[in-house]
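=== RUN LOG ===
request id: a7f3
mode: sequence -> structure
chains: 1
length: 426
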Amino acid sequence: MHKQRHFSLRLGAALLTFAFVAFGLIGCTVTPIAGSGTPTPSSSPGTPANTATSGSPTPNTPVSWSGGWNSFMLASQTSGSSNYVILNANLQDQHTALTQYAVPQAQFGSISPDGKDVLYSVTTNNYVQFYTALSPRPSTGFFYEVSSRSAYLTGNVIWMSDSRHALVLDPVKGVWSVDVQTGQAQQVLSLPFSSSNGTVDGIQQLLAYRDGYLYFQGGGGGYCIGAICRVQLNTTHWVVTQYSPRQTGNSDFLLSPDGGTIYYCNTGPAGQAGLYAVNSDGSHSRILRASSTGSDCGGVTPIGFAQDNGLVVMSDINGKFEVLELGTTPQQDNLILADAAPGANSLCASSNEESFSANVCSQDVALAPYSHALVVQGKLPDGTLQLWGTDLITGQQHVLKPIDNGGKPVQLLGWDQLSVCAAGRC
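=== RESULT ===
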């Protein structure tokens, strides 16, 4: 039996870490943290985009900031179009458009640490161009671009803690710190690089940045290939910490709010499949839930953190999508919500999403800071898609209809601090 538990809202810090991988969304959890600095450039400036692109969207008018993580962003293709609009919505089913333009064929990334912006990328003419949706921009529209030489070397971007700079992965050149408003770039890590542990030939994805450390999934053919690793920036003596076995990837990577623990799902082929935790210094690796199938995350999907920093997961239990704070054993799990999507038979909006436990895709789950609210996208038995929003403090649950898009799935981008303008008034 799970123990019922309620959580009080405690939103004190303004900095965030994101439980999803930028431009390869893994979950939509936004968790306030403290203490992340901007890396000191260690080499000559990089080359930001410096030529205007025809049709580049212009910055939107300023959006009112209400304070509190009480609204969430979503992106949706409009009915009959492949372009996206970005909306802000709340649990009262109020919503407003955040952009005055259509975003073409975008891949969306993380919400900024201050909760006022979101990153996205557009691929055009063999280049990946990186944008912010709401901040002032360089004259090009995009703040950086990298050559898209293959489907596996496209680069990605994650926010810095000041919400003004981002770390951009150029798979060929390395990692750059970029001012998203001016496009000014400084290289902070070149590729390949040699550490005391071995040579890192490449980086597949940037995962997170915290307290001077860059967390990434290794690529290329050297040390860290297919594994979750980190390296300290601002130093000339590179030391790499490896957390997961090679070839396991970054499946559902999560960094705890205090920065002390890494969580990830190992779905093979190396090592025992299941949900793992490891200390951020690389010590005390342990399996929290072993897979009974040999290919999932131990029957649960990590989605974020509770007020006490406990790991929160979702699981399909007898047709109900339970939200749980993980205990030391399954018998000690604390039940937060008995069913996040009543009537749904899947929380996977499309067939190309990755499921880490039965019928749950973390891309379709957005947990608010400290688990005070939840939005999920699910599929009913007749194939209809639906959004459910739940206030986890009061237990009130609603079906949300923020946009009429002809039944297309939406992308849940995460929770923000922007106001929702009802009836045209903020």
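=== NOTES ===
The mean pLDDT is 82.
Residues 3-58+69-416 form a domain with the Neuraminidase fold (CATH 2.120.10.30).
=== END ===
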